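This part of the workshop introduces the protein records we will be handling. A record pairs a protein's sequence with a compact description of its fold. As an example, a complete record with its sequence and its structure tokens follows.

_____
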Amino acid sequence: MDTSASASSSPLPDADVQLARLAGAIAEPARARMLACLMDGHARTATELAAVAEVAASTASAHLARLREERLVEGLAQGKHRYFRLAGEQVAAALESLMVVAGAPRAAPFAPSTPSRLRTARTCYDHIAGTVGVALHDRLHAQGWLSGLQSGAYELTQEGAIALESLGVEVDAVRRSRRRFACACLDWSERRPHLGGALGAAWLQLSLRRGWLQKALDGRALTLTPKARRELPELFA
């Protein structure tokens, strides 16, 4: 008896079952609204997603547990808050395709309530947050200077280490710090990651010394200077 055909086809039932489970998770209207809301790339709290889904908080928690079980969303703890976001680009791509087939309009864009002065740029403990911090995080990746690892940890590429050293970051000294070297820190206002860890702290201090950023005397707000845009347009444009 030739078992090759049956052996090669044996994973199919499991795949079919998993596909049905995923379809069931997405098909529930409240969960579908949550997923559509998260398509803009911003993380949200369970309370915010409950409002979007028009369900009670306890019901939202059950829905989010189902979505996490099917690996459609992931949870992130940030201080005393907990946020949820899509579990990766593949999930977003699959949902986008389904929305095209369904002819559904895109969800309303994320609209933070953070005061504009703090939303633009501010300190998050000892690193840069806000629109400027998120843009910097994205541009470090776009330049090929920062590479992503598992669990939200980052590492500098060889090109990135050389570039940051040339700008004044003492990379070896940062590595010797007794804290995480570099990591994604979920931004409070943007709900997207900015650069945290020892490298994020070193970059803030360098930016202040070089006059690329100015710190407010009475709070967390930072001001991006014309000098930053002039000297580092690839990072601060």
Notes: The mean pLDDT is 87. The CA atoms of residues 98 and 151 lie 28 Å apart.
